[in-house]
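Researcher: Quick test of sequence recovery. Tokens follow.
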């Protein structure tokens, strides 16, 4: 809060020099008729008046910005497969009750708020802290449906400190993965992230980077040590990225359903290396087995029809695209996760000290990571003249090299080997702070036994940004 400026004296007041007393008024003369007029005090000389200090504005040394949105969504699904988010959830097949009956959601749990605090610049060092929360926190599986929706639990989205200098930028805390240069290349859609086959995730990390700025092109380099999916691996994920922004060709793009941004044509390349250490495949493990995973992502934001300014988006057309390939990356690629390990020799279940879908033992007792490739392409067009109405469409597809009949997964119903996702969206900005969106979303998954399951979703969304 800005300190209040000292108030100057009232303009009509008269001040005397310090230590000066006003002359006393002499008493009237007695016994001689009417009292004589008392002499008036002599005002001090103008030069003796002290100068009136000017009002000096005092500004806050710290700056805090509160931001967020209230969101309301109505969704109808053709199956009972998904919650509010599609993500990597398995679609129920047509030979099940859930696969032949629909579901309707009403939710406001995607509402969120955040606060960003900037410290005073010190010797060229800029420091910013950011905290952001929403209401998608985990709840017990036994909670009632009414409580699940109406009593959303706080969830930590971002909590980080960013330090910027002339030579290097440092980010410490929870933020989007550097892998995929998130969130810059996200598509425009009402669907909650991640959509199927989308590189997505937030984790605690330590990141360093620097942007080399020139008039024609900006080049950004960054590297990060990120919390791995398995604490027992003892080794953090290592991520690195390179990005080019071509300043002479700018376009409008929207991240999800948020506000519009204007940025130059941008191409990014990023990679990740991860290590897994899993307890041996026995009832009473003593030793561990290790495996490595990796990923590479190539992303682009291309203004097909450029825009000159953010406040003039009419007729802007932008292409977003992403391709990823890797192994052991299912947790940050919007793909199948529930891939089981084989049972123990006595047919007892084996529980690994690792999240599902990243690395599993094969029938011979070898630990192997699960490979995935995927792509996503989207178009977003801002209708003339004002751009207050926009349309977007997205297509994604993913493939696994592991969840196949040849690898013994022909009966697996908890994971898919191939998936496709298509959506179409219409957004209307009712006011600068209120947006409405309508979306149709089609999801398709093919299992190892070549059975395909589908879901169709119709969604209405309302947003109020602050």
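Model:
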């Amino acid at each position: 809060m800005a300190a209040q400026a000292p108030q100057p004296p009232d303009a009509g007041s008269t001040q005397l020099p310090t230590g000066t007393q006003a002359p006393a008024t002499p008493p009237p003369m007695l016994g001689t008729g009417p009292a004589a007029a008392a002499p008036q005090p002599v005002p001090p000389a103008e030069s003796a008046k002290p100068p009136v200090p000017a009002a000096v504005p005092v500004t806050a040394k710290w700056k805090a910005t509160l931001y967020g949105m209230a969101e309301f969504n109505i969704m109808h699904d053709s199956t009972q497969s998904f919650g509010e988010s599609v993500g990597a959830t398995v679609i129920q097949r047509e030979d099940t009750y859930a696969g032949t009956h629909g579901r309707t959601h009403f939710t406001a749990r995607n509402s969120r708020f955040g606060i960003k605090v900037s410290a005073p610049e010190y010797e060229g060092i800029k420091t910013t802290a950011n905290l952001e929360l929403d209401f998608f926190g985990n709840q017990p599986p036994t909670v009632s449906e009414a409580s699940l929706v109406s009593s959303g639990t706080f969830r930590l989205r971002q909590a980080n400190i960013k330090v910027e200098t002339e030579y290097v930028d440092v980010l410490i805390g929870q933020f989007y993965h550097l892998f995929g240069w998130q969130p810059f290349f996200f598509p425009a859609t009402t669907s909650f992230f991640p959509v199927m086959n989308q590189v997505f995730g937030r984790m605690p990390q330590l990141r360093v980077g620097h942007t080399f700025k020139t008039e024609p092109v900006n080049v950004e380099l960054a590297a990060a040590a990120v919390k791995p999916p398995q604490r027992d691996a003892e080794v953090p994920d290592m991520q690195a990225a390179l990005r080019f922004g071509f300043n002479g060709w700018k376009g409008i793009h929207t991240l999800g359903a948020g506000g519009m941004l204007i940025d130059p044509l941008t191409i990014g390349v990023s990679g990740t290396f991860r290590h897994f250490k899993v307890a041996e495949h026995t009832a009473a493990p003593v030793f561990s087995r290790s495996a490595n995973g990796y990923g590479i992502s190539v992303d682009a934001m291309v203004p097909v029809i450029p825009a000159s300014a953010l406040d003039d988006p009419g007729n802007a057309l932008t292409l977003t695209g992403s391709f990823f390939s890797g192994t052991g990356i299912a947790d940050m690629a919007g793909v199948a996760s529930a891939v089981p390990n084989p049972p123990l020799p006595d047919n007892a279940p084996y529980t690994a000290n690792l999240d599902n879908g990243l690395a599993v033992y094969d029938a011979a007792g070898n630990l192997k990571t699960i490979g995935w490739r995927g792509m996503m392409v989207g178009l977003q067009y801002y209708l003339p003249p004002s751009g207050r109405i926009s349309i977007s469409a997205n297509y994604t597809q993913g493939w696994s090299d592991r969840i196949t009949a040849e690898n013994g997964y022909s009966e697996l119903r908890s994971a898919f080997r191939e998936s496709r996702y298509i959506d179409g969206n219409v957004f209307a900005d009712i006011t600068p702070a209120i947006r409405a969106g309508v979306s149709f979303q089609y999801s398709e998954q093919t299992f190892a036994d070549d059975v395909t399951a589908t879901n169709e979703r119709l969604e209405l969304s309302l947003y109020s940004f602050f």
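Confidence is low (pLDDT under 50) at residues 1-38.
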